[in-house]
Amino acid sequence: MKVLPLQPADHASPxxxxxxxxxxxxxxxxxxxxxxxxxxITVGALDPLAVLEAIYEPGAPHFYAEHPSECSAIxxxxxxxxxxxxxxxxxxxxxxxxxxxxxxxxxxxxxxAPFGGPHVFVGAAFAxxxxxxxxxxxIMAFVPRWQVARAGDxxxxxxxxxVAPDADLDALAERVWRAHQKFAGFSLxxxxxxxxxxxxxxxSTESFDYRASVAAALRQIDAxxxxxxxxxxxxxxxxxxxxxxxxxxxxxxxxxxDCFAFSIANGRGDSFIGASPERLVRVSQGMLEADVxxxxxxRGVGAVDDAAMGAALLASDKDQxxxxxxxxxxxxxxxxxxxxxxxxxxxxxRKLANLQHLHTPVRARLPDGIRLLDALAVLHPTPAVGGAxxxxxxxxxxxxxxxxxxxxxxxxxxxxxxxxxEFMVGIRSALVRDQxxxxxxxxxxVAGSTPDKEFAETDLKFKALLDALQPPR
Length: 473
Ligand SMILES: C=C(O[C@H]1C=CC=C(C(=O)O)[C@@H]1O)C(=O)O
Description:
This protein has 473 residues and is an alpha+beta fold. It has helices at residues 14-31, 48-54, 90-103, 169-184, 210-222, 245-255, 303-315, 317-336, 372-379, 390-400, 451-469, and strands at 2-4, 35-43, 62-67, 72-85, 105-108, 119-124, 139-151, 154-163, 202-205, 228-239, 260-265, 271-276, 279-284, 287-298, 348-351, 355-365, 387-388, 411-416, 421-425, 429-433, 436-445. It has two domains: 2-184, no CATH class; 202-469, Anthranilate synthase (4-Layer Sandwich), CATH 3.60.120.10.
């Protein structure tokens, strides 16, 4: 990425912008290669979700991720560059796309500020291939035309503009200038839509017998086919009025401040939304962090019951085994890349609004030559959503679940040009289109699991999304 020492905020005039774009176009003309011009500015405090909702266009792809308790949120929409990938090499191809895109980027402004410079947003499905009629490809990757993000007290807006060798510069300069004006003095006054109609009627159907699948999986575990498998349910909801995915997200981030609230939209009417407690991988300044999360119990009613529930989870042999399988896999796969992992010897409790999980945070310095996507490619899918051994378990998931997972239990996140980025696991999630939603929830099955208990656990996991889709009046 070429960074020009120009401060767009200090030279903000239509003439200066046109002169700058003209300089970028000359670079594009010199080698016949389109440039991506990325203009970052620091702006006054904005809520990226409010911005996304205010200028939401159902026909444009978007990406949103927020971790309220870490005070970080990033929104981006419309497409400046995009690609899709499938197959076993999909993460390597994604890396090439990101490298190639950043290499032809000319950036100005505070690119080293939090969320400064161009970002590639990614939605990777659970499986490396998907059926043709599925709403999201195996990997959808795009650089947005605009991005607004907040990290602590710093809000950064980024406009990304493709400049082709033969682009009409006047039209381009005018459009970018308008966008710049909009974000530099962004106002939500008058942007609020009238209060949304909330669904009243809600019918749900489930088309396969989860308990029977768990029982079948337990027989396969008994036969030694695999040690652990994660089986999910899909609940199909139909409401009387269309859902508003971003307003649902607002409810999720309020209720689950320790989770990642996320939304990814394909621009054809489908949104995949959720509140995930699980960070698959984050890389910042050469340090990698990941969450090992597996083993679940409900929250208690009152402090005593809650503590008793937590203690029961910590003492549960079945849950400890479920967790240990995930930690062992994460360790083995990252150590094979040369990472020396640090993590607590015993899992702790991660308490969410509705559930508590066994949790082991893992961190390591990335060795030279190993990048975020190298780690992601070996980690995904972890046995928190797939199983162990991976190949046998994942193959059995396809036979035992009666629906395609799509982005459920996939990897959703973003990457910047500095090698940093963050991906979460697409659980506690729903695929939403108009009046329909498909809500997903899974549970890890090991020897000692019972169909009834796993069914009850997935019911608890469903509830978060169901409540957010149909808030109480
Ligand atoms: C697969 C899901 O959760 C995983 C993450 C944490 C705890 C899990 C469990 O205890 O089964 C699951 O492995 C899901 O919520 O759909």
